[in-house]
Amino acid sequence: MSDTTEFSQDKSPFQIDRSRFDHVNQEHLAYKAPLGLSEELVRDISKTKGEPEWMLEKRLEGLRTFNAMPIPTWGPDLSDLDLSQLHLFMRPKAKQNARKWEDVPEDIRGTFDKLGIPEAEKKALAGVGAQYESEVVYHNLKKEWEDQGVVFMDCDEGLRTHPEMFQKYFMTSCIPINLHKFTALHAALWSGGTFIYIPPKVKLEIPLQAYFRMNAKQGGQFEHTLIIVDEGAELHYIEGCSAPQYLSNSLHAGGVEIHVMKGARARYSSIENWSKNTYNLNTKRAVVAESGVIEWVNGNLGSKTTMLYPCSILIGDRSRSDYIGIAYAGAGQNQDTGAKVIHVGKNTSSTIQAKSISAYGGITTYRGQLSVKKGAVNAKSSVRCDALMMDDKSKSNTYPYMDIHQPKIDIAHEATVGKIGSEQIFYLMSRGLSEDEATKMIVSGFIEPVVKELPLEYAVELNRLIELEMEGSLG
């Protein structure tokens, strides 16, 4: 059996067209780490990148912490994740940070062409970064934004050119190394990713995007995203990611840190479409200062197992967080997602709207935490999670957790779980729709609040992916 054989656990005759995502290039690597995790590997990564001593020490602290912490057992089963069978660092045979697509090797460029990245850059983006395996192979920012002082580069280059910002912000107050076992692993192995700095009062009118691609089997990817939106500035940043389908496991454990300064606004949109052999154990957190706003828009469709809970820490008075997300789980998938908000400042507010769809025996879980610290007077929060199950084999769970230490607050929570009923289908079919068309209409209405928050081309993509996944789900 080929190692790129598609899983086909459902009984539907429909085969999902993942050709754009499951395209596999022959490996052309400048370096491929031996299987497994070791101190030697961590030191080699740091030496190869020419990092300062303090970053090596941070990596080694991550390794020690990872080895000391247990595997989490409160969520999806991770017992099949074996780091000794993964190549945790791979450098493609390509120029790092090419400024022209013509300078990217033809096979790699062809992959990003299939994914539509160069075309999107021309039409709708202020700049693009593209990572392949463990390193960024393309990065470009349009001159009009560069002239306004916007910094947009990969984190390896950011560490070299802005060391003072990295020492201040990199895995300090936002994502501590010891937050959990996989943030520690990320600290030890991080490579590539995105560094963004938006100067005071600069309002980026069109989005920046980074795309992260894993190609080789039995791989690990640990990109780091560090974003600083200075006072009164605005940013919309989009991340996309994918990997081809293999039978052997892969691991993605990225880290996203966003610092929103006084009166600033950041929107982070992400569509994660990892393949169904990938463990997606990602960490995303934002620290928001006075009158700042963080907005999360998340779509999770791929992966064997996802554990992802974007967190907003509202330290400033009148700061705000809005989260909206959709998770889809099909056969063999466990999507454990949600959001966390920590209210610290006065008059803070937050909203969480989480939606999930499960089909063919897939498992979706909303896992959220709302924390209101003592002194966070007049905090307001609304949490709503809605689940849609397409059959009797699928599962949906809801685990909201509220930790309240301040009496003068306004908190609301609502959860619904439902199935598409035969009467709904019958009604729409009586109006001339086929069964598949009726199903798609109901699902489209369910995910509409998420789709309308995405830029047009990404909204179309999310709709298309879910339609493909749902095809024949009632058959």
Protein architecture, described:
The protein is of the alpha/beta class. It has 2 domains: 19-308, no CATH class; 422-475, no CATH class. The protein has 12 helices and 26 strands. Strands 5, 6, 8, 9, 11, 12, 14, 15, 17, 18, 20, 21, 23 and 25 form a 14-stranded mixed sheet that branches. Strands 4-3-7-10-13-16-19-22-24-26 form a 10-stranded mixed sheet. Strands 1-2 form a two-stranded antiparallel ribbon. α7 packs across α8 (163-169). It is globular. It starts with 18 loop residues before the first helix and ends in a 5-residue tail after the last helix.
Give the key terms.
34% strand; alpha/beta; 2 domains; 26 strands; 14-stranded mixed sheet; 10-stranded mixed sheet
Ordered list of secondary-structure elements with their pairings:
Elements lengths: L18 H4 L6 E4 L6 H11 L3 H16 L21 E3 L13 H9 L2 H8 L2 E6 L2 E7 L1 H4 L4 E3 L1 H7 L1 H7 L11 H9 L3 E6 L9 E6 L6 E2 L2 E6 L4 E9 L7 E3 L2 E6 L4 E9 L4 E3 L2 E6 L4 E8 L4 E4 L2 E4 L5 E10 L4 E4 L2 E4 L5 E10 L4 E10 L7 E10 L5 E10 L5 E10 L2 H9 L4 H17 L4 H15 L5
Parallel strand pairs: 3-7, 6-9, 7-10, 8-11, 9-12, 10-13, 11-14, 12-15, 13-16, 14-17, 15-18, 16-19, 17-20, 18-21, 19-22, 20-23, 21-23, 22-24, 23-25, 24-26
Antiparallel strand pairs: 1-2, 3-4, 5-6
Helix pairs in contact: 2-3, 3-9, 7-8, 11-12
